[in-house]
Amino acid sequence: MNRTYSSPCHSQSPVSLKDDDSGDHDQNEENSTQKDGEKEKNDKDKPQSSAKRKAAVPGPAEHPLQYNYTFWYSRRTPGRPTSSQSYEQNIKQIGTFASVEQFWRFYSHMVRPGDLTGHSDFHLFKEGIKPMWEDDANKNGGKWIIRLRKGLASRCWENLILAMLGEQFMVGEEICGAVVSVRFQEDIISIWNKTASDQATTARIRDTLRRVLNLPPNTIMEYKTHTDSIKYVPGMRGGSLSDKGPFKPEQRRVIDEGDKRIFKKALPVYQSAGC
Predict the structure, then answer these.
(1) What spans are recorded as compositionally biased (Basic and acidic residues) (predicted)?
(2) CA distance 141 to 197
(3) At residue 246, what are phi and psi to the nearest 5 degrees?
(4) What is the C-alpha to C-alpha distance for residues 213 and 160, in angstroms, rounded to an integer?
(5) 3-class SS of residue 74
(6) Is the CB of residue 135 less than 8 Å from the CB of residue 127?
(7) If 0-12 CB within 10 Å is exposed, 13-18 middle and 19+ buried, where does residue 225 land?
């Protein structure tokens, strides 16, 4: 049964995170009792399954989501070619959540997109789906792309992910995830789906995206298949999240809205899922 959270809020205070908290608590405790050589041997002897993170489950009295989701973060040097392998190594998993309350615990401690610098990306994808074109859930799909003028990314990103978590797109399992890409001259919002050839589904996603972001009627939206995205990057086998769409100069219109929501300054992004 789909659940819609048009304006979810949390009743619990977010857990405070220390600046140097990398999530390696268990490792630090082991270092105090084991020699480095012993620890390395023990780590190699561990079954691979024991290294997997525990599945996220809703806590008592929490509001479960229809799907579990994972936050990711990536940053790269602009202008440098990115192979599929190097991109996968660069992307960092922040953490997975299964309820409305768990989402807010992560989100309240993350820097807002408008406060990020350089070529940085936040990704929010269903658990088990990597934010890569080659992932089995993504390879036959595509994404809607909207380019924003600077200053609007934080509000648009929040509205988009709340709509996605609340199942407002009403397209079943088609939604894979969403990305906000921070660039020097503009920011980019995109939402990914599984089946690029399903025109009815992509049209519904487009219309819902216009509504939840309150986009002006003349806003330019581009749908790009992941197959085309891979072909567009010269010399690449595989994909990066380079959202350089084939726009003509006169098409590079960005959204101009007066409503600029001010966000409080948040703690730095934590790149470990153990936070």
Answers:
(1) 17-47
(2) 8
(3) -80, 60
(4) 7
(5) strand
(6) no
(7) middle
Q: What is the dihedral of CA 129, 24, 181, 119, to 10 degrees?
A: -130
Query: Are the beta carbons of 199 and 141 closer than 8 angstroms?
Result: no
What is the C-alpha to C-alpha distance for residues 254 and 159, in angstroms, rounded to an integer? 17
Cα 216 to Cα 24, 33, 52, 253, 255: the distances in Å are 46, 61, 45, 12, 8
The span from the CA of 218 to the CA of 198, in Å, is: 24
Model confidence at 262, pLDDT cuts 50, 70, 90, reads very low
Query: Considering only 4-8, 91-95, 170-174, 185-189, which range has the smallest mean pLDDT?
Result: 4-8
Q: Which two tokens stand for residue 258?
A: 């007066």
77 pLDDT band (50/70/90 cuts)? low
pLDDT band at 55 (very low <50, low <70, confident <90, very high): confident
- CB neighbourhood size of 68 (10 A): 18
Say how many C-beta atoms besides its own lie within 10 A of residue 188's C-beta. 20
Which strands sit side by side in the sheet containing 92-99, from one edge to the other?
Answer: 92-99, 64-76, 119-126, 175-182, 187-193, 142-148, 222-225
Strand 142-148 to 222-225 pairing = antiparallel
pLDDT at 118: 82
Q: The tokens of 33 are what?
A: 């009792």
Let me know if 190 is exposed, middle or buried by CB neighbors in 10 A (0-12, 13-18, 19+).
buried
User: CA 19, CA 42: separation in Å to the nearest integer?
Assistant: 29
* Of 55, 201, 65, 179, the residue nearest 128 (C-alpha): 55
- Give the single-character DSSP code of 255: B
What global pTM score does this model have?
A: 0.66
